TrEMBL record:
This is 2-C-methyl-D-erythritol 2,4-cyclodiphosphate synthase. GO terms for biological process: terpenoid biosynthetic process. PANTHER family: 2-C-METHYL-D-ERYTHRITOL 2,4-CYCLODIPHOSPHATE SYNTHASE, CHLOROPLASTIC. Gene3D superfamilies: 2-C-methyl-D-erythritol 2,4-cyclodiphosphate synthase. One of its GO terms (molecular function) is 2-C-methyl-D-erythritol 2,4-cyclodiphosphate synthase activity. Residues 7-48 form the 2-C-methyl-D-erythritol 2,4-cyclodiphosphate synthase domain. Pfam families: YgbB. It comes from Scrofimicrobium canadense. It comes from the Bacteria. InterPro entries: MECDP_synthase (IPR003526), MECDP_synthase_sf (IPR036571).
């Protein structure tokens, strides 16, 4: 039988474009002063979904 370690680490990437007039939310905090934000439907808070 294989000896598989209990912890595995991987990596990935994702791309989110910024658009004028969209809300910017990072870590669950809405940044009111931002002029651009992410146009998305499910994973727009890039900090929370990282």
């Amino acid at each position: 039988m294989l000896d598989i370690p209990p912890l595995r680490i991987g990596h990935g990437h994702d791309i989110h474009a910024l658009f004028d007039g969209e809300p910017l939310c990072l870590g669950g905090v809405l940044i009111d002063s931002a002029k651009r934000g992410f146009r998305t439907h499910s994973d727009g808070d890039v900090l929370s979904y990282s």
